[in-house]
Amino acid sequence: MAPIVFPANQPPARFYLGGPQISSFRSDKPSGPNEPEDWIASTTYCLGCARSKLGMTVLPDGRLLADAIAADPEYWLGPGHVAAFGTDTKLLVKLLDARQRLPVHAHPHRDWAREHVGAKHGKAEAWYLLTPGEVYLGLKEDVTHEELLGLVERQDVEGMLGRMHRLDVKARQTVYVPPGTLHAIREGVFLIEVQEPEDLSILCDWKGFDIDGFKDGHLGLGFEKALTAVDTRKLTRGDVERLVTSDASIGVALPDVAKEYFDLERVEIRGKKMLKSGFAVLVVCEGALEMWVAGEKALDIDRGKTLVVPFGDGDVELKGSGEVVVIRPPRGQ
């Protein structure tokens, strides 16, 4: 089976604005105003959508990607991955276009998520910036649980943002967001988001968003309990800067601490480049390329294309001139 190129998969009616930069990047027709996320090679459905499977990727033959993987896991994921993780891809990849500042929010650690909501994963995440912009990450000072709860109940957005580190991030830099860390993305940022495969968010502000946070911002637990998932400890500026890549280097683009969750590599092709075998999600960021599998040309791909490469395809060669981000699960056995 050749690697599979996916069309946009943008769940509609999300609670924040976005979508035009995804359409432009993909050279697609304009999306709706509240379609800010493109879920790529997704085996995960949106929160509350277990019946409709909204968010899950459908293959050209009509099957869900998740079902295809379950039917032949060693082909898709490889024996080492299956031995370590079963049929779980361990990945959720998105394009994200923020046309308004995203709420201050956090995602739980997997241990907390397992205990409190029965989820298999938490939600560590990382951002690969396709455009420059501003982000907020972590607290500049220790905050008690009671203080944070008060900020949320009063919807004191400036009080929250004022306690957080603000970062100017360049295109091609990567930001790692540990589970439990408060964060927000400013308006105008366009990025690739890599996450554990769950749709779990604890919202701390929701002014100006199409959501009732008092009702839907706390995973059904109430904020008293939900906010126990948030790391309220101070991060120094140095702590935060170590979560951000220092330059647009070629190769592995994540700090070591992120590798228990996923891996991300920036690959530049000037002529040809071999990608090692293994399940991978690819986003073509620049250029025009040929993809060769088993010595034969399989695909032409260019800027804006997103695709999945199964383990069973073996080593894949890219020829031409361009730039690709390659996202992989954590290493199996």
Could you outline the blueprint of secondary structure elements for this entry?
Blueprint: E1 4-6, H1 20-26, E2 37-40, H2 65-71, H3 73-77, H4 79-85, E3 92-97, E4 105-106, H5 110-117, E5 125-129, E6 133-139, H6 145-154, H7 157-162, E7 164-169, E8 174-177, E9 183-185, E10 190-195, E11 202-203, H8 213-216, H9 223-226, H10 237-241, E12 251-252, E13 263-275, E14 280-293, E15 296-302, E16 306-309, E17 316-328
Antiparallel strand pairs: 1-16, 2-3, 3-10, 4-11, 5-8, 5-10, 6-7, 6-9, 12-13, 13-17, 14-15, 14-16, 14-17
Protein name: Mannose-6-phosphate isomerase ManA
Domain Mannose-6-phosphate isomerase cupin: 258-328
Keywords: Isomerase, Metal-binding, Zinc
What's a concise summary of this model?
Keywords: Isomerase, Metal-binding, Zinc. With 333 residues, this protein is α+β, with helices and mostly antiparallel strands.
Describe this structure in words.
The chain has 333 residues and is α+β, with helices and mostly antiparallel strands. It folds into two domains: 4-249, Jelly Rolls (Sandwich); 257-328, Sandwich (Jelly Rolls). Helices cover 19% and strands 30% of the residues. The chain has helices at residues 20-26, 65-71, 73-77, 79-85, 110-117, 145-154, 157-162, 213-216, 223-226, 237-241; strands spanning 4-6, 37-40, 92-97, 105-106, 125-129, 133-139, 164-169, 174-177, 183-185, 190-195, 202-203, 251-252, 263-275, 280-293, 296-302, 306-309, 316-328. Strands 1, 12, 13, 14, 15, 16 and 17 form a seven-stranded antiparallel sheet that branches. Strands 2-3-10-5-8 form a five-stranded antiparallel sheet. Strand 14 and strand 15 form a beta hairpin. It starts with a strand and ends in a 5-residue tail after the last strand.
